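User: Can you help me understand a structure? I only have the sequence.
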Amino acid sequence: TGYAPASPPPLRGDKVDKDLDPCEVCNVERAETLPASSDEVHQSCPRCGEFKLSGSAASVLRRNGNRKNRTRLSGWVRSQNNAGSVPTVSTTVLKGLLSAPQPTITQRAYNVLLEAERGLGALGEQFNVYEPRFLGASFSDTKDEVAYLTRLLKSLGMLQVTTLDGKAEILPAGYVKLDELRESPATSSKGFIAMWFDPSMNEVYEKGLQGAVFGAGYDPIRIDRVEHINRIDDEIIRQINGCRFVVADFTGHRGGVYFEAGYALGKSLPVFWTCRKSDIAALHFDIRQFNCIAWDDAKDLSSRLSARIEAVLGPGPLRSPQ
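Assistant: Let's start by predicting it. Here is the structure, written out as tokens:
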């Protein structure tokens, strides 16, 4: 029989690495600061994961970053990393996150299970639930909360804690549940964005496409911001398979966007069609039959696309209840 975790050890020891800085997101762990442009912070934190934070968002977080807000942001960054993406936290993203509801207790417990599986080399291999990454993954404020979530998983027969210092293993029922979680795109919170990666589209992405997906309550995924070692087409298919829907913007008429939209249709995933108004006349005739949002600017795109996503799918899990 396993043990429920006792009072957890402190987050870190007294020794401080001089080469590390306070994490700009959780403000608890010490993080590696990586090279970045002059107007953003780029860090890798053992709790939150890797992220980029715009200068304006960093200012907002320093003013309004209470413990609850930082815990929520930490959890979101970790979820983006686990999807393979290194997110850029802009003021638009930050505003949405700080007003988003906390995941349910069940969701947070399953996040512990998903995080536990990452990095395991063999069935039955042990891990430590008190590693900082479990705080981020489970949207937990303290390690006592992580301990509570592990007890919930134990009661469901999915996980067993074997030592008082947090050593644990996934049980057979846990692996069955992991298969269910991975193969259920209908419950995914992610939206895949297919678009032209030209620098002229940066504002369209940040304030338009990303803002719309996030504003509707879903996590935006863009393939060029995903860290991976696979063939690019294999990774695109893997990411789309794990998403609830695809947004396909045909500005610039890139062949990859047509491919990604077609693959999503073949998988019966909802596809949201968008294109800059000045490019709409050049749309391929196969696409013209769909109800495409012809947008003027990023603000116009954001409001119309967000409304359409909500109308078709309803508000996502990151959207605060009205």
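Now, to help you interpret it: Residues 67-82 form the longest helix (16 residues). The first strand starts at residue 21 and ends at 22. Let me know which part you'd like to focus on.
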